[in-house]
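Entry 12.
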Amino acid sequence: MSTVVAQSHHVFGLQSQVANNIFFFDEQIIIFPAGNQCVRYNMDQKWQKFIPGSEKSQGMLALSISPNRRYLAVSEMVQEKPVITIYELSSIPVRKRKILNNFDFPVQKFTCMAFSPDSKYLLTQTSPPESNLVYWLWEKQKVMAIVRIDSQNNGVYQVSFGPQDNTQVCVTGNGMFKLLRFTEGTLKQTNFQRGEPQNYLAHTWVSDDRVVVGTDTGKLFLFESGDQRWETSIMLKEHASEMRNLEMIQESESLIEFPTMTSPIPSYEQVMMASSHSQLTLPQVFAVAAYSKGFACSAGPGRVLLFEKMEDKDFYHESKEIRIPVDPQSNNPSQCDKQDIVCMCFSPSEETLIATTSKNQLYSITMSLMEISKGEPAHFEYLMYPLHSASITGLATCIRKPFIATCSLDRSIRIWNYESNALELYKEYQEEAYAIGLHPSGHFIVVGFADKLRLMNLLIDDIRPFKEYSVRGCRECAFSNGGHLFAAVNGNVIHIFTTTSLENISNLKGHTGKIRSIAWNADDSKLVSCGTDGAVYEWNLSSGKRETECVLKSCSYNCVTISPDSKIIFAVGSDCTLKEIADSSVLREMSAFDAVYTAVVISHAGRMMFVGTSLGTIRAMKYPLPLQKEFNEYQAHAGPITKMLLTFDDQHLLTVAQDGCLYTWKVYDKEGRGIKREREVGFAEEVLVTKIDLEEKAQVMLELKTRVEELKMENEYQLRLKDMNYSEKMKDLTDKFIQEMESLKTKNQILKTEKEKQDIFHRECMDDLLEKQTRELQDLECCNNQKLLLEYEKYQELQLKSQRMQEEYEKQLRDNDETKSQALEELTEFYEAKLQEKTTLLEEAQEDVRQQLREFEETKKQIEEDEDREIQDIKTKYEKKLRDEKESNLRLKGETGIMRKKFSGLQKEIEERANDIEILKGEQLKLQGVIKSLEKDILGFKREIQERDETIQDKEKRIYDLKKKNQELEKFKFVLDYKIKELKKQIEPRENDIKVMKEQIQEMETELERFHKQNTQLELNITELWQKLRATNQEMRKEIQKERALEALVKQFKTDLHNCVAYIQEPQQLKDKIRGLFEKYVQRADMVEIAGLNTDLQQEYTRQREHLERNLATLKKKVVKESELHRSDYVRVMQENVSLIKEINELRRELKLTRSQVYDLEAALKLMKKIRPLEAPETAPRKVSLSIVPTRRLNEQEETGRIIEMQRLEIRRLRDQIQEQEQVPGFHPIAGINLPSLESKVDSEMQAK
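Predicted 3D structure (tokens):
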């Protein structure tokens, strides 16, 4: 287990969805569920004590307390299975008495429970489709009876026992009201439903056989022994006091910001119009609670009615109405009381009524104070403070004040005090608040709403915004530790703002998914972020760039934090691990053991770490992180934990979750002491107040002072007037009293005279009465003497009768004695015979016993002898063992000396490895710079090649144009007749040119092959370099991980050694501790390493050999691939050469044909010259005209030849440049790009000519 301990200190929240969620333990202490624990709260002393839920619990479903207040039953779901745990509340601390988890019947969950009046039996109801009612003898975990309540899958809402009878049971639900009785091991229904079935929501027993039941249509029924005796309907109508409350709300403009005309809040006119139509609604009776005078029931949203019993009848009448008050801090005050009351409870003395609502609020009212206010409806008060009613999305704390800031999906912002456990400020808004940040001074907050990001002041009694930013849907925001900056997240961008000028100084972009968490380091120079894209980035705020990054796309991160020394980043996500990240790599991954971590936080001292899970539990562990499963797990929340924080002094842990609860935990070490604060600084007491508020309050105070003076003057004047009036009245009264006294004196004298007369009259009457009495006494004595004589005679007669009766009874007794003596003699004889038989049997049994005793003594002697021999053998054996242990102890002392030497050697090796790592890091940085420069060169060369490809394409287009011109030249074919002679002269040099061009083509092919070989060689060199670099990187990471593990081991060894030093004065304990250290840190693997150090060298040699073999295999594969590529290129070049040779042969054939045509033409021309010698003067001008055209065409041919020559020079220049670039190391030629062949150019030239 971990040495870090977290203890629940206080909770701000309530789970209203738990059935029967509030009840009294005594007059001062109440019990209610919050998160995944039950809370005992003292209303006078304001302390809380906790009853944690079961391990791996998924949340509470129902509660029940026994009538004697000794036991608490909790229905839970533990790993998808229902469990009922019964706690003993009278023990300190509260302990589990029984756990009911083995069921012989199908059950999904238990929805409601109830204890019997004597607390021995438990009644439980299961959920549909089973809907079984189970009657338990819970102390013995025995099912006494089970019955299916409903076969139509309707819900059962409440079960209960009769107030005095263990066998009588009541069940209410949708369409059912059943009274059952436990008889002969079964539950039998005793009532029959009459009339239409109702949806009975709640019930309570008002006497031994009477039940009051409430429905969803606002009806109340009284059943006596299952028969309906009384019925009433509750109509929900708007009260006149609500109108006055609305007027008061409209007048208090200083406290409430009024919405615009599009707000959903109804205006005063709308309420008046609604009331004029007298809209009546049917309230739902969700809760009914009985007390001595009658019962209380919920009567619609925010309303409770008290019914009292009529004196002359057995029915009830409505006596009082209680309402939930309007909250002035709410965004919609008219809707604050529109929350259903789901549970109610009276205190044992019936002095206090407590109610819980559907919005997780706790209200109370004192019954004695409620009776004073007659006529108007009474109002509830908050039992503690307003609580969150939805999932808490934001959590923040500060340094200078004990404040906690929270925001929730219930559109509220609340400021709590974790020292006084109170609510400091509270305000609701129209938009949902997603994230909150609290300035270290405790005076400002930044809140991310759905529409904007707002910066607000925390005033003495209000929260007021003073700056708004157009950042929509900000899910994360946080102030820096110094308070001069704050960061806000918008999607995948982090905006950095300064609190001095309130400007956006930087935007950090890089995430591709939504950012889930951000964290500042200790000196605010860096910011760490994580997101759903699986990326963890560390940002440098001075440059606005990423310093380190770690991307794992398979993991969606939930939370991130950074160690106090800013070296290690801790991240948790959807892959159920806790990651330690440093230098862009994951150093360690600690498994979460079948749980998803949702939040992580590390202490400011760097000694402890806490993580929150999706199950709502908290795990406390020591840092550096343990290698095994060493952590303390605590049941906290009933939903996934959303945020976790530690206060600046590391004294309190704060957690919030989707269940709407805020927990504060006290952090202790293993011995139970609180972790000391790093520096003792008192909390600040100053508050913010605006100048306008101060002026208004000063003005109000002046007005009140003047009003007080005026009232004093008025009171003095009124007192004077009253004194004068009273003095006059006193005078009148004294005069009246004097007159009355005189009249009374006269009356007194008259009465005295009358009294004397009466006394005389009474004396005379007394004398007469005495004489009468004496006469009557004498007469009575005579009569009584006669009666006594008669009675004496009767007495003597009765005495004679009694003597006769006595003699008869004595005779009967003698007869009975004789018969009795005979029966006794017969019985004695019979039993004496039996006694003799039994004595003989007893003697035989005694002899058997003596024989067995003798055998037992003999066996005892033999066993004692054997035991003595065995003891001697064991003694000798253990003496030998003791000698061996002493020898091994001496040997171990020598080995410890060797280990110390080895430890010092390892420390030196660690220092050397650290130096090597620093050198390797420097080399790595240099290589990275070279690689970056080479990549830039490669990009430049690629751009140049692209440009040159474009120029070549332009030249090819030009050649194509020239071909078109060549086709036009064919039109002038008849000119060739006159230039045959010149062409003959030109044919021979053209052939020579063709030969030269062929030689050039061959040279170019050889150069091209050489270029390909150089390219493949360069690629192989680059791949080798990359593989070497990857291998060095892997080795470096392994060395870093080894170094981290060794550092953690050394730290742990130092702490354990320091703990051993504490026992330096106690040798035996010191010896045990050192032996424990040896067993913990010295393993067999270490001894093997001492025995054979050469194995490391052998492993290094084999590792290098395997590395070289892998490189050789990769090179062979690459050579095979390159040879295949080269072969395909060679085949392609050969095919091109074959096609070119075919073209050359075709050109030769055409040349021969043209030559033969030329000879034929020459022969024809000679004949023509002979035939027409005289036609020369006529054709002369024609020749002149024709000769002009060839000269012009010759000029064009010279121009094309010049162009071709220029292109050749350009091609040569490009080849020279390519050769120069290929000599540069790291140059990669573009695969698939070949230079244009010169034969195609020659072909085009031939066609042009």
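Annotation: The domain at 392-669 is CATH 2.130.10.10 (Methylamine Dehydrogenase; Chain H). Residues 618 and 634 are 5 Å apart (CA to CA).
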